[in-house]
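User: I'm writing a tutorial on reading structure tokens. Could you give me a worked example: one chain, its sequence, then its tokens, then a sentence or two explaining what the tokens reveal?
Assistant: Sure. Here is the example chain.
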Amino acid sequence: MRIPQPPAIAPLPRVSPTIYEMLRVCRARAAWAAFGERGAVPEHPMALLGTCFHAVMEKAVAGELPVDEAGRDAARLAFDQLVASRHRLAHPLLRTKFPSPDKLPYYNLFRERAALLASEAAQRRTAPAPGGSSAQAASGHADVLVETMLRSADGLLVGRPDRVNIQDAEVIDYKTGVASEGDGWNVSDSESRQLKLYVALALDAGLRLAKGTIVRGDGRAATIRISSDEAEAEGGRARQALAAFNELAAAGTTFYELAQPSPAGCRTCPCIPFCERFWEAAAPEWMNECGTHVEGTVSSVSESAVGSTTLLSLEVEVRRGTVDRGPASVEQIPGEWATADGAGSPSVGDVVRVVDGRLPTREDVPVVRVDRTMTAVWTYKAQMESNANQAPCGPHA
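And here are its predicted structure tokens:
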């Protein structure tokens, strides 16, 4: 597949909790989220399913799903329809690996989590509010805001919390993941920052919130108290992060110059295929935290077949990445993965970037194997220069 171009950089008009968190880790990653060409890199299946999970939850808390037992079936149907729609627009590699939506890994797990939590959310919505009736609750009383876009008075901060319960002074956000044993009632640092920003936005809207809750995919919840001072301080830090980025953008800073590679920051980052700073900084010591990523020149290509599937094996001279420099093998790449976007297969002399492979054992000559969920093989010709021309893109909504 062809390596995508990095985006041109422009000032950001505003910052959301998601972009704020990215700015804290790597400004280039935030730039890709804001300006990058959507669909240029394959989306992780769990990200696709997570988006659909949230859409089902939105329907539930908005009163678009039944409250009785039929509600779970309706949630499942909504999930199926949403995933099918996203799948049709997904990167060709994802559709090549998983030809139908129900083949996506974790599909049934996310589907059942959506059905369970959507049913519970719909029932909570129709429960009588203190001093009120169930009929008032079912009609969507003004004490609850669902997926409502909030903006700060200066327009610099925006956010769309899943649910705001004004009467309980609480903001609620649903997460698709589950809590591991021992931390089921804890809110992570990044989740805390997100909840604080939502409270800051609510304060600007005249809503007095005092706590934030994370509801995880297994139904367990974690709540923290949030003071007005804490919320306003987090809002100030988000504005500072936005101002620092915009100052760099106005000065003509490139994607390359914005990148801040690190083992933790680059883990699961979609920018790895085209981020030159990553390839300059990555080292074998990064592998355990960041994954197996290889850049090297192809010295030989061999083919084999399993049924109707052609498999490619590459001998490469590794020059950068999280695998030691020197000779390595990349084995049994389904040929259709390498050509999913219409590009030709790798050939001798090409430079390949194998992203998110697996290195099961340590050997004198490393043998990198592919992972169906994660691995992508990107190719550019040896004589081609690195991405230099950046086509401008507008910010995503």
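What the tokens reveal: Residues 128-141, 383-397 have pLDDT under 50 and may be disordered. The first helix runs from residue 17 to 25.
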